[in-house]
Every structure is written in structure tokens, then in C-alpha cells.
Amino acid sequence: MTNIKNESHFKELCDWCTGVEPKLEAVIREYDYPPLWYRKPGFATLILTILEQQVSLASAKAAYNKLAEKIKEVTPENLLKLSDEELRACHFSRQKIQYSRTLANEIVSGQLNLAELNEMDEASIRKILIQLKGIGNWTVDMYVLMSLHFSDIFPPGDLATIKAVYELKLVAPEATKDEIVEYMQRFSPNRSVATYILWHFYIQKRKLILE
Q: Do the beta carbons of residue 4 and residue 10 sit within 8 Å?
């Protein structure tokens, strides 16, 4: 799988996607090109993504900020110094405390080397991360899409993306998630770029402010 190289390459791929689906061209015409969202790959980003599971981005960010305020640098070692009570005070749920500790322990023990992981292909990264309790396909999708900028990722577990597909009437209202996945195949090998356009539409339509 290739990567999105830079901003200009990203815009070229956006144009390619609009050639595949004119309804995406309308999004860019109304709202301009989407940002090339990026999160630095590593432990801190994985913790933030775990916190984002099944909650709003705002509440996840608030919990992450409380953690960062508490330990200054979000590293495995610093997180493991906190008690469960201290993590709960940072708005971590019981499950997310467990997930975060599992990830931190894997790194501290040397079982997981994120520097090496980040150099692997998408399938290898997914195979490794998915074995960790609390990390599912959605979390992996967000990581390889936003942090590693792999160009051909579509996250079917992402509610905003699915809603955008329906709202743009890219599929029939009764289409299933499997049918949406099949529809998105037309954007391969640039499904990540189409996903960014869908996110952009979802965010702009609702006038959401992202930190």
C-alpha cells in the first residue's frame, strides 16, 4: 500500500476521487479541500484513539488533556505510574483503563516496538495491534489512516463516515454497511482520500470545531 506523500499529492488524489464520484466534487466546491489531518504516530496517539472509542471527540479529548496535564508527557512509563483511581479522575472508564494499561505494558515489556511497527505494511500492523485487548479494527483504521497516511483505508466502523455516505446519497437509503464497503471499493487505491472528503463534509455540514 502506498502513502499520501504531502499536501500537494493529497490534493491530486482528492481530484482523482472527484473524477470517480462527482458528488465528492460538489463537497470540495462548497467547502474547499479537506485538511490533511495528521496525528504523530506513537503511544500517545493510540491512547487518544482508544479514548475516542464510542464517545464524542470532545469528551475523549478532554480525558486525554486531563491525562497529559497529570503526567506531562504521555508515555507508557508515565501512564503506568498512575493508579486506577488517578486514571478514573482523568475520565478513563474501567475498560479504557484496562486497554491503556495493556498497551503500555506491551511496550514497556518490549513485546511491542512501535518504531518497528510503524515501518510495517498495513496488514502486518493490523495483525499485531488487533491482538491487544481493546484495540479493534476501527482503532487500527484511525491509526494507519491518520498517523501513517496509508492511502487505501476505509473505516466501515466509523459512524461519521457512514453517515456522510448516506447524507451525500452515494448509496441507496436502505444500503447495508457491506454495500457501502463495496461502493467504496471504486476509490481504491485511494479510499483514505475519499474518507477524508467524507469527514470534511460531515464536519463542515455540522459546523463542528475540532481542536
A: yes
3 state DSSP class of 3: strand
Dist CA 192 CA 147 (whole Å): 12
Q: Estimate to the nearest angstrom the gap between the alpha carbon of 182 and the chain centroid.
A: 20
3-state helix, strand, coil in the chain (%, to 5): 65, 0, 35
* Residue 3, beta-bridge partner list: 150
The average pLDDT across 139-166 equals 98
189 preceded by a cis bond (ω within 30 of 0) = yes
Q: What's the pLDDT tens digit per position in 103-151?
A: 999 999 999 999 999 999 999 999 999 999 999 999 999 999 999 999 9
Point out which residues pair with 165 in neighbouring strands. Answer: none
Rg (CA), the chain: 18
Scanning 21-150, the segments in alpha helix (DSSP H) are: 22-31, 43-52, 57-71, 76-80, 84-89, 94-108, 114-117, 122-129, 137-142
- For 67-102, how does the pLDDT look when each residue is reduced to its tens digit (9 = 90+)? 999 999 999 999 999 999 999 999 999 999 999 999
